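Predict the 3D structure for this chain.
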Amino acid sequence: MPMEPEWLKQATGFGMWFIGFLTAGNALLLSFIIYKKAFQYGRKMGMKEQTMKESVKASFITALGPCLGIFVGMTVLVIALGGAVAFIRESAGVGSIMFELIAARSGAEAAGVQLTREGMNAMGLATILWAMATGSVAWVLIGGVFTRWLPKLKDIMGQGNPKQMAVISAAIMLGAFGRLFIFDGIVPLIQKGNFAPFAGAIVALVIAIGWLLWADKLKKPAMKEYFLLIAIVVGMAAAQAIR
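Done. Predicted structure below.
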């Protein structure tokens, strides 16, 4: 039986799991507070109890798609860095799996290691954790301190045009995922002739676009919440089949 590497012992030690339970507990507590406040303000606004319960039920159903997508993304972190790291990050980030995967990849590149258990070391783990944590600082500060000014900032960036703001947001996401596609899909194809990652990414892109267009055609916006889950699962399956 192969010996567990030292970095993995640190990543899955008691301290890491303890931090994970703290962040998860904080997320659960805040969710409960928001839930209670929603009912409290709903009653003040004169909403019926049945209406509020139906709203909670609808929110739960809508959240299932993103949660399943997050679960698939967490599986990647579990395989690469261990369960404790995935538990901490998804408890702290509350679902920002796209950021977590990008941050983990960027941290691994900065440390000169691969985002795999075979290619990881203690320095790589520390760099990835720092990349994840520091990348969240601006998010926490803006969300926690500058929330009241966010609508004004949004108006300045979008110049009062919601479509322009949507274009800016899409451009940012395309830039982030485009970089991942280049380094994880195109570079392995050119340098090593490894076609599977490239094919998996293309299949995932086609599936994502097709799913979003299908949701628009059926006039069911709730379906769009599942596009990331479907794209990831089908893309991974395609890459594995070609591999």
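The chain has a mean pLDDT of 83.
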